[in-house]
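Quarterly update from the structural biology core.
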Amino acid sequence: MLQNIGQTGVKGSRIALGAMRMNALDINEAEKVISASLESGVNFFDHADIYGGGESEIRFSNAMKKLNVKREDVILQSKCGIRKGFFDFSKDHILTSVDGILKRLETEYLDFLVLHRPDALWEPEEVAEAFTQLKTAGKVRYFGVSNQNRSQMEFLQSYLEEPLAVNQLQLSPVHAPMISSGLEVNMTTSGANDRDGGIIDYCRLNKVTIQAWSPFQIDLSKGLFSGNSDYKELNDTITALADKYGVSDEAIIVAWILRHPAKIQTIIGSMNPDRIKRIAEAEKIELSRPEWYDIYTKAGHILP
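Predicted structure, tokenized:
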């Protein structure tokens, strides 16, 4: 199933494959991962210049060549801005990074370029100049950001000639501050803390596609909630729904994200072909409101 990505007119799969771990695969394994993705309806592939030190992009492009996949049949996105020990949104770094990305992916253009996390020292004029130069040269079609709040997006957008297309944000049933802040409005609970300026509403209002990363994680330091004894009630609820719908637990988790009316695109990072196919079944399911809220509350969140 495809969805509009931002206001670009590009139709991308609702589930995207993140290639962060592809550098750990050999060429045959990478082929199987890409084939499983395409067979499951996934046409959107997310990269970053730092993934595997660039090796993930090389492994991906080599596998694509062996599979004879046409460039126009896939959507390629990559990210730049993270360097060893610091962030860098300078014009020179963005331009240099894109040239490296295009070389490693062996493509003439990226469908989307995303700024990888915020840079405290950024100059929006430089970013805008870099974007304009890349667009004019035909190297990048559309642009986005990751892990930015509403004010950061508004600030950057004021310098750009075209609307930002995506914002990549961490979201899972357990890690859902952007949702809890909208439910616990006017409360003194921890979930009421608005950490991102109402980013979901901002993105919906401005037709920016949210890309959810790490849909199975608690957070970056605590790992997965699946199989975690601290989340037994949540996992039991997910398994019961998986049995009801005849799919895997992973598919239910992704279906929970896809159920949100913001039309959130989910990025999965699995390098297991069978797991990719299981996760892709999420698109066949539309959780009911009670089921969606049941997962939300069992994940540890409250309702007023």
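The first strand starts at residue 2 and ends at 4.
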